[in-house]
Give the backbone structure.
Amino acid sequence: MGKHIFHFIPGLFQVPEHAELGWILGCLTSIPRLQHFPQWKVKNTSQLNEGTAGLFTYPVLQAADILLYKSTHVPVGEDQVLHLELTQDLARRFNKKYGDFFPVPKTILTETKKVRSLRDPTAKMSKSDPQKWATVSVTDCPEEILLKFRKAITDFTSEVTYDPDCRPGVSNLVTIHSAITGLSTEEVVRQSTGVDTAHYKTVVAEAVIEKLAPIRSEFEKLREDGAYLEKVLQAGAETAKTLAAPVYQEVKRLVGFH
């Protein structure tokens, strides 16, 4: 089998085979396994233990998204490794019970370290964070980005260094700067010699603003063309359906739904 790297197809949400395969894979998944996901623990706690079933079983749906296209390799960040491990386990369980069918996808780890919250460098940066100053969005204007970085949590030492354990706030800024510029963290720190952390926040903000500017511009351009977006979604849904339908039909045959 050739290498098949998983990638997002616009319009996937219009393909019901995702949810249907998710239900089948859910029957192979134990509740204790899902309870161990850090994302569930954090969000369920923040919701006063009123987390929803949809949130709880979301990792299974993610597994279905990957396996439905028989992906052999999946690019992920550090925070998604556990999700891919679940996908791998479900592929093995399905194959053991119903015959060799799904490839067990391999992990492709991105080089960039986990980007952490600007307001709490012990937590990852998340679009669902209730603190509006914690997360930088692609659609943020330059003024918003600059203000968010100026409010970023650091410490009382003015020197720019990279020490995630002892100086998580400044180290997070270095990580972001490294990812944006393509330089190593060591090179970023070397170039920042003599720069105090207050000024360094502005340096990182300006680098982020410059990097995101063309992306934000294209985003705004596309958002104004609703007809084009609908066309892309429809074409994506048709492509996804063409790929997913025969795989799911075979899954149904294997599990005895036919």
Remarks:
- The mean pLDDT is 91.
- The chain has eleven helices and two strands.
- Residues 98 and 254 are 6 Å apart (CA to CA).
- The first strand starts at residue 73 and ends at 76.
